[in-house]
Batch of 4 targets.
Target 1
Amino acid sequence: MPKPPTSREAVVPVLAEAFREHGYEGASMAILQDATGLGRGSLYHFFPGGKEEMATAVLADIRTWFDDHVFAPLRTNSTDRAQAREGIGSMFDEVRRYYRSGRRVCLPGVFAVGRERDRFDTAVAAYFSQWIDALTIALNVLGIRAPRQHAIHLIAAIQGGITLARALDDPAVFDGAIAAARTSLDL
Amino acid sequence: MPKPPTSREAVVPVLAEAFREHGYEGASMAILQDATGLGRGSLYHFFPGGKEEMATAVLADIRTWFDDHVFAPLRTNSTDRAQAREGIGSMFDEVRRYYRSGRRVCLPGVFAVGRERDRFDTAVAAYFSQWIDALTIALNVLGIRAPRQHAIHLIAAIQGGITLARALDDPAVFDGAIAAARTSLDL
DNA sequence: GTCTATAAAGCGATAGAC
DNA sequence: GTCTATCGCTTTATAGAC
C-alpha cells in the first residue's frame, strides 16, 4: 500500500494504467478507487466529469509523454541524417520499453478499435497523426521513398505487434517486430 | 425489420457483428436482443451459458470462416509456387473485404488487447496461430527467408492497419497497407 | 479535500406463463 | 420455442457529514 496521490497530475498515470489493464468500460469506479487509493469523493473532486474526464486527462498525458520522448526527436533538421537516424532508433527503444514488449497495450490503439473511438475520436486521431507526421519527417530526411506511407507502415507494424504479442502471449513477437523494422531501415 | 432468425447457427453471425460494433462488455443483452430480434428467453434457450457462450460460438464461427476462405488456400503443396502465390493473393482480397478496409474490426484482435483475452485466450491464440502457420507454409513455398517471422509481420501489418484506419477514420490507410504488403511480395 | 451513504439506472441471468 | 416479469447485483453519480 504505497501512496495515496494527493494531486490531480499524480493520479493521472495511475488511472492510465488502470484503463490499460481493464479497458474504459471495464475500469469501474471501484477499480479506479482501489488503484489510486482515493475515495469516490476525491476522484470526483479532481474529475467532476467522472470517467470521461479521467480518460480525457489520461489521453492528454499520454500524448504529452510521446511528444517529449518520441515525436520531438523525430522532428529533425531537414539536412541532418545522423539526427534522423538517432531519432528513429530512439523511437524503437522508447516504444519497446513503453509498451513493455507488448505486455502493455496502447490506449489510443485500444480505443480506436472499440466504441470509445466515438467519444475520444479527436484525441485518438491526434495521437496517431502526430506520430505519423513526426516519423514522416525523419524518414524523409533519410531519403526514404513515400515516407508518409512508410511511416504509417512502421506504426501499424508496432500496433499489430502489440496485438499479436498479446494474442500469442509471447513478448518475443513484439521484440521481433521491432527488430525487423530496425533492420528494414539499416538501423 | 427483416428477419428474426430461428436457428442457433443463423443467430451467430448477427451476434458477431454486435460484438464487433459494441465490444464484449458493451454488447448488453438488450443490444443483442435488438440485433437478433429475439427475446431474452430465446437467446438463453440457444445459449444457456449467456454472453460467454455466445462469444465462444462467435469466435468458433469466425475461425471456421477463416479456415475455409483464408487458411486452407494458404496450405499449399510444397512444390506449387503458383498455388502459393494465389493463396496469398486471395488472402489479401478476402481480408480486405472481410474487414471492410478497416471499418470492421477483428474480434480476436480486439479481444487480444482487452481483458477478454483472459477468458478467451485459447480461441484468440488459436486464431492467430493457425493464420501464422498457414501463411508460413505459403511463404516457405515462395522461398521467402525466415517465413514464419515474415508471416507474423504481414499479419501484424493487417492488424495494425485496422487500428490506424479506424483511428484516422480513413479506410484508404488500410487499403494502402494491403497494397504495400502485396508489392513487397511482388504480387 | 476526503469520506460514507445512497440514489437511480442498467446489467446478466432466471422463472414461469403460454 | 418464445415471451414478460423480476430477482439480485453492479454501475455511475450525487449528497451531505466531517
Note: Chain A has a mean pLDDT of 96.
Target 2
Amino acid sequence: MPLDNFNYSVSIDCVIFGYDTTDLKVLLIKRGEAPYLNYWALPGDLIKEKENIDDAVSRVLKDLTGLSNVYMDQVKTFGDVGRHPLGRVFTVAYFSLLKIEDYQLNPSSFATEAKWHSVKRIGELAFDHNKIFATCKQELVNSVKVKPIGFELLPEAFTLTELQNLYETILQTTFDTRNFRKKIHSVGLLTETGELQKSVSHRPAKLYRFDKANYKKLIKSGYNFEI
Amino acid sequence: MPLDNFNYSVSIDCVIFGYDTTDLKVLLIKRGEAPYLNYWALPGDLIKEKENIDDAVSRVLKDLTGLSNVYMDQVKTFGDVGRHPLGRVFTVAYFSLLKIEDYQLNPSSFATEAKWHSVKRIGELAFDHNKIFATCKQELVNSVKVKPIGFELLPEAFTLTELQNLYETILQTTFDTRNFRKKIHSVGLLTETGELQKSVSHRPAKLYRFDKANYKKLIKSGYNFEI
DNA sequence: GCAAAAGTGTTGTTCGTACACCCATGA
DNA sequence: TCATGGGTGTACGAACAACACTTTTGC
C-alpha cells in the first residue's frame, strides 16, 4: 500500500443532549475560526495520531464540559466529497447524554462560545452539521425506546412525572399517567430513594433512582427494555 | 487547519450476507497480498479521492459480485490505533444483503479467491475483521426484526416456508407455522404471484412476492414493521 | 379552603401463544 | 397408497388502552 493513500483527515462530532425539565437541548459551539467563522456548530475535533475514536469523543466532552464517563454512542460516519472546504475530512458522529445541571461552561480554545439550544430551534449550522444533527436526533429517539438511557438526562434522583415528561418530550407524544407508572413499576428498574420533593406548593412527589446494577442483571437474563 | 493533519486513510469493509435455503452465509475473500496474505477477509477497499462512502461500497459490491442496487446499510466505523499495520486506516463497516443465486464470482484484483462461508464457521480473519463481522451480524439481527429486509435474501418469488426458515436462521429461534403465517398475512406486504412451486414431491406451495410499493405506502402512513 | 400536582384500580380490547388435523403432489 | 411438506382455526391468557377521583402540600 503506497503511502500516498494517507491523505485524509478524520474527526469526531458530538451531538450532546441535555434536558431541563421542559425542553430537550443540544450543546452547540460558536466557531472561532474559518471556515464557517461565527457559525454555530457541533462540538468536535480531529482525531489525534495515537487516539482511538471513542477516546477522541471523551476528550472533546471532557474539554467542553469538564465531565468524564458521559454516555455516548456512535451513530454514523459522514464523508461526502466536499463536505469540508479544506480537504477530505471524514467525521464520525456520536450522540451523548448528560445531566444538564452537571455541566459547567468550559469552552475549549477553538470555540468562542458554547450554548444550549432547544432542539426545536436550530438554525443553519456549519458544514453538514444540520444533517448530522438530524440523524443523531432520530437515533436518540430510536435508542430511547429500547434502551433505558433516558435516565442519563435526569438528575440522580427524579420524580416519575419528570421521567414521563422527558419521554414525552423526546418521543413527541403523551402517555396516560397511570399506564406509564404501571409500566415503569412493572419493569423494576427504579428504586425509591426514600426522599420527597422539597418546597413545592403541592403534594411532594417521591424521588426515584435508576437501578443500574439491577438492569445489568436483567439484560444478562435476556431482558429487553421497551417503552 | 495545517495540511499535516491529512495523513490518515479511510476504507470501507462489507459484510455481504446471502442465504441458500439452509444456511446464512457471508462472502469472504482470500487476501492476495500482504499484510495478512492468504487470510480470509471481508471485501473492502480504500475510498477514492472523489468518491462518497456509499459509492465506494457500491463499487466494491459491483466489482466483486457484478450486482448493482444491492441492499446496504452503514453499521459502524472502526479506527483503533494499530488496527492496520501500515498506518492509521479507519474503516467504515457496512452490511449488505443479496440473493445468493444472483451472485456470480467476479473476483477483483486484490483477491485470489472469493467464497461463501457459513456464518457459523468463520475462522480467524485478517485485521480486526472478526470484530467487524460480529458487529454487523448483530446489526443484521436487530434490523431484520424492525425492517422488512429479509426479502433481499430470497429469490423474487418465494414460499412462506422459505421465509419462515430464513427468519428462524437469522434470529436463531423457531416460530409456530400458523402464527407466523397469520402475522405475515396480517401485515399485507406479500402478494401471491399466482404461481406454485414446481416439481416437488409433495403439495406445492404458493409463491409470494414482496410488495415494495405497498410497503412504501405503509411507512408513509406511520406503519412500523415488526416480526 | 383552594390551587396544583401526586398518586392509584378496573374493565374492555387487542395481541400473542399454544395446539392438531386434512390437503395436494410425486413416486 | 404412502411419504412429504403445505395449509388452516380456535381458545386462553397477557399486555395495552381508556378512564376519574382522592391525597398532600404551600399559600
Note: The CA atoms of residues 17 and 97 of chain B lie 5 Å apart.
Target 3
Amino acid sequence: MTTGAVSPRRADTRRNHERILAAAAASLTASGELAFNTIAKAAGVGVGTVYRHFPTRDALVLAVYAREVEHLVDVVPVLLREQSPQDAFHAWATDHLARYMMTKRGLAEALHAATKPHEDVAGKAYEAMVDAMSTLIAANVQAGTVRPDIAAETVLRGLGGLFFLDPRGDWRGEAEALTDLLWRGMQPDRSEIAPGALRGAEARQSERSIDPIYP
Amino acid sequence: MTTGAVSPRRADTRRNHERILAAAAASLTASGELAFNTIAKAAGVGVGTVYRHFPTRDALVLAVYAREVEHLVDVVPVLLREQSPQDAFHAWATDHLARYMMTKRGLAEALHAATKPHEDVAGKAYEAMVDAMSTLIAANVQAGTVRPDIAAETVLRGLGGLFFLDPRGDWRGEAEALTDLLWRGMQPDRSEIAPGALRGAEARQSERSIDPIYP
Amino acid sequence: MTTGAVSPRRADTRRNHERILAAAAASLTASGELAFNTIAKAAGVGVGTVYRHFPTRDALVLAVYAREVEHLVDVVPVLLREQSPQDAFHAWATDHLARYMMTKRGLAEALHAATKPHEDVAGKAYEAMVDAMSTLIAANVQAGTVRPDIAAETVLRGLGGLFFLDPRGDWRGEAEALTDLLWRGMQPDRSEIAPGALRGAEARQSERSIDPIYP
Amino acid sequence: MTTGAVSPRRADTRRNHERILAAAAASLTASGELAFNTIAKAAGVGVGTVYRHFPTRDALVLAVYAREVEHLVDVVPVLLREQSPQDAFHAWATDHLARYMMTKRGLAEALHAATKPHEDVAGKAYEAMVDAMSTLIAANVQAGTVRPDIAAETVLRGLGGLFFLDPRGDWRGEAEALTDLLWRGMQPDRSEIAPGALRGAEARQSERSIDPIYP
DNA sequence: CATGAATGAGTCTTCATTCAT
DNA sequence: AATGAATGAAGACTCATTCAT
C-alpha cells in the first residue's frame, strides 16, 4: 500500500505534466511567448502531449499562473506566523509579490483579465490573491496598524504597479517605496490610534521617518 | 520662403503619417493587435509606406503612445490653473489617467517598457508622464498638501494599478479608492503640517474624514 | 461443448467489433470523417482496439460498406418474391439504391475504387452489387421485359448517378426519372417482343406512355 | 495601345495565377489531394501567394473545376457544327465527358456539390453543364432523334456514372455501353418516329444492332 | 516616395500509429 | 486483448519583411 502501487505510466504522465508546466512558466517568464511547439521541445515531449494535457492555450496559461498564485498565497500564513502583521505585509509585498509581478508579467495580465471574480479560472486566481491580501489586512486591522475600511482589492491594485518595475534596476528600493506609500495610506489617522502603536512599522517603513517625540 | 511653399508631396506624406498613426491607435485600442498589413489597409496605404514611416513595430507603437501621453501631459497645466493642487491631482488621476490606462493599454506598456529613462522613445513618454506627475506633486508640496520627499515615479507606479480596472465595472469608484489611498500616503505627517492646510483635500478625500474641530 | 461455451472474452471481442463498426458507420454517414481516435471514443474502446479489429483505414471502411451492401443485396430476393420483375427493379433502384447512394456516399466511392472485381474487399462489395443487379436483370429478361444483352455493370453505373442526388430536394422524383430513363434503354426493341409484354411496366413507368394500339 | 502597356508585375501575377491553377489541377487529378503547401511548391511560389490568389480551399477547387467545365461546355457547339446531333451527343458523352469524369474527379464533385443551381460558383459550373446537355438534347429533339420530354439533368446524372470508370480498363467500351443505354432510353417511341430516322444512330450505337435485312 | 505582390519562416492543430502497461 | 498516453509528421494559416515597378 505504498505510493509505488501507482502505475509507472501514471507517474510518467504526471512528470510530463510537470515538465510542460515548467517549460511554459520559463517561456512565459523569459519572453512572454507561449508557442506550443516550443514548449513541447523544451519539455522534451511531443506537441501532441502538450495538447493532451492542456487543450487550449488558456488552459496552459492558467495552469501556470494558478501554480504561482498558489505559492504566493501559501506564503501568507507563514509570514504572519513568523513576524508582526505589518512586517508580514511589507515582506509579502516587497519580497514575494514584487518578484512575481516583475518576472511573470502574465500574473499581472491574469489580474487584469479577471477582475470579474468567480467568472473563470483567472477569476479564481484573482480571488485567491485578494484573499491573501485580505488576510494580511485583517491581521493588521487587528493589530491596529491599518484602518478597518481598507479594501484588499484597492491595495492589490496599487501594488499592481510593481508590475512596472525593471528587474535590472533597483527594483527592491522602488518596491519598498511603493509599498511604503501605500502603507502610509492604509494607516489609521494619527489622532485615532494609540500613541506608539506605529513605532515599529514607522521605523522600518522609512529611514526618513521623523520620530514624533512627545515630551 | 513661407511655410506655404511646402511641396504637396510633403503634405501627402504628413497626411499618411497621421492616417497610419490613427489606424494603429484604433487597432491597438480595439484589439491590441498590430499587424502591419492590417494597419496599412486600414490607413489606405501600402505596407511599404507604413514601413517607411515606422521602420520597426516599436517605432509605431511608441509613436502611438507618445501621442497619447502628450494628451495626458498637456492637460496638467490646465488642471492646475483651474483648481486647487489637490483637486488637480485627483482629477488627473481619476479622470484622465484612469481612462487612458483602461482604454489604451499601450499606455501601461509604455510605463512598463520604459523605466530606463532617456533611453529611447518609450523613455521619453515615461519621462513626460513623470514630469506631469512631478508638476502636480510640486504644486501640492507648495500648498503643503503633500510631503516633499515623494517621488513622482513611485506615485505613478501606484497609479499604474489603474491599468487593472475593468471598464465595464465601477471603475470610477475604484479609481477614486486607489487615488485616495495613495493620496493619504503622500500627505505630510499630521504633526508637521500647518493646521488647516489639509482642510480642502481632507474634505474631498473622504467622507469619513475626522473633523478637526478646534475651539 | 455447445455454442454457449464461447468464452466471455470472445463475446466481448465480438461486441467491440460491432460497436466499432456502428460508430464508424455513423461517423461516415454524418460527416464523411473517419478519425480512428474519434471512432474509438464513440465506440467506447481504446484506439488500440480499433486497430486490432481493423488494421487499416480501408479495412474499416470496407467493413462498413460491406455491411451496407449486404443489406442492399439481401433485399433483392425479397423484392422479387413480392412483386413483378420490373417493379422489383424499380423499387430496388429508387427505394433502396438511391437512399444508400445519397446517405452513404462512401458506397459510391467503394463502387468507384473497386471496378476491378476480385481484386480486394472493395471488389467483393462491387461484385455483390453487380450480382444483385444481375439477378434483377435476369428476372426481367426471363419475363421478356429487358433485353438479354444488358450488362449489369452498365446499368449499375448509370444508377451511379443517383450519387449526385440532393437529399434535401426532390430526390425521389429524380431517382425515378433516372431509373425510367435507364429502364427504357434496357427494354427489348418493340418489334422483337411479344405484343403486350410491356404493358404493365410501361403503364407504371411513365404516365406519358403512349399505348400503341394496333387495329 | 498595345498589350505591352500592361505592367510586368501584372503579367507576373497573372502567370502565378495560371501556375497555381495548373498545379492544383494536376494534384487534384493525380491524387485528389489539395495541400496548399504542396500546390505552392509545385507552382514554384510561396504559400502566401497561393492564399492571396485563392483565399480558401473552395475558391481554388472551384477555379479548377470552372476551368474544366468551361472546356467541356465550349466543345459542344463545335461538335454540333461538325456532325449530326446524335453523333455529337455520343461524342460529347464518350469522348469528352467520360474523359473528364475519370481524370478530374473534381468535376464529378462539382456535379454533386451543386445540384442547387444558381447558388454559388459550384452551381454555375453545374448549370453550365446542364446547359451544354440541353443544347445537345435540343438539337436531337429537333432532328427527331430524342423525345422532347427528356430533362438534361436526368441524362447528366445518368452519365455521372462515367465517374466510376476505371481509366486503366476498357473505359471506352464501357462509356459507350452506358451512353448507348441512356441513348436508347432517350429515343422517341418507335411508332412515333419516321421510319429511317434512327438509322445512323442505331448503326453507330451498337455493333449488336439487329441486322436490318432488306430484301 | 508609394505600392502591394511575393515570400517563407514560424505557429497552430490534427491524427495516424506505436507501444508500454 | 484492451487501453490510452505519447509521438511527430503533415498540412493549414498568418504575418513580418522585401523589392520590383
Note: The radius of gyration of chain B is 21 Å.
Target 4
Amino acid sequence: MKNYSRQREEIIKTVQESYDHPTAEEIYLSVKTKDPDVSRSTVYRNLGVLVENNLINKISMLVGPDRYDAVREKHNHAICTKCGKVFDFKYDFEYEKLKKMILKQTGVEISEKGIALEGICNSCKKLKN
Amino acid sequence: MKNYSRQREEIIKTVQESYDHPTAEEIYLSVKTKDPDVSRSTVYRNLGVLVENNLINKISMLVGPDRYDAVREKHNHAICTKCGKVFDFKYDFEYEKLKKMILKQTGVEISEKGIALEGICNSCKKLKN
DNA sequence: TTCCATGCAAATCGTTTGCATAAAC
DNA sequence: GTTTATGCAAACGATTTGCATGGAA
C-alpha cells in the first residue's frame, strides 16, 4: 500500500466501524456522505488493495454481491442464502489440526480467516415460501 | 422439476461425471460437444433447477465464477484464491453439534453441505508472486 | 518531477430475462 | 391443446479497466 489518500482513509474507517458486513455499494454510499465526489471505482480499487494488505476481509457468497469485514478477533460466518445477510458466530474449529489435515489431503495451505457456512436465517424462515 | 429434456439430461450427466467442480461455462462447453445447438441460457437455467432440486451443489467463491458439484458422499472444499480451483477433503466437523451452536448463536439454520475453506494451492504456491 | 491514486465512462464478466418457437405430456 | 423448455439476443448487476487529470512523496 503506497500513497495516502483521503478516500482510502474514509473507506477503511467505514469498514472498520461497520458491524454488518457491508457490500461494496453500501460502502460506496456511506463514504459518499462524507466525500460526495468519491467514485465507485475508487471504492472498488481500494477494497481490493485493503484485502490484499489484510486490513479487511472479503466474503463471497452463494447469493448477492461480495461483502466486507474488518479484520478483528477471529470469528466465523453463517450466511443466509435467501437474503444474503451474514451473521457472526464463534466456534473452536481447531485450526492447527485442520490446517495440517487439509494440506496433507489437498496441498492447499489454508488461510485462517474463519469458516463460512450457509443456511437460512430466522426472518427468512418466518416468511413462508 | 417437470418435463424431461435431452439437454437437461446431458447437463446432469456432465456434472455427475466430472470430478473437477466445473463452472457453468465449462459445463456448457462440455454439453455442446454432445449437443452442438444447446444454448448457454439452457445450461444456466437447468443448473439453477438442478440445484433447487438438490441434484447438484453450487459452490461460490472469493474468486472466479460459481462452480458445480454432483451430490455425493459428504465432503468439504478447499478453494485456491489464486486460481479458483476447488479441492475436496474429508474431515469430521461434528455437524450436529455445530448446527445447534450456530442456530443458538445466530438463528441461522445451516444446511449441511460441507464446509469450504480458502487458501493457496500447491501449484500457485510454486509460481512465486 | 516522478509515481501513485483519482474520477469518469466504457468495457467486461457472469448470469438472467423476454419473447417467439419447439418439444413434452 | 396446454404446459414447460428451448434458443436467441438483449438486459442486467457487480466489478474492472483505460485514460486523462490531480495529489502525494
Note: Residues 40-52 of chain A form the longest helix (13 residues).
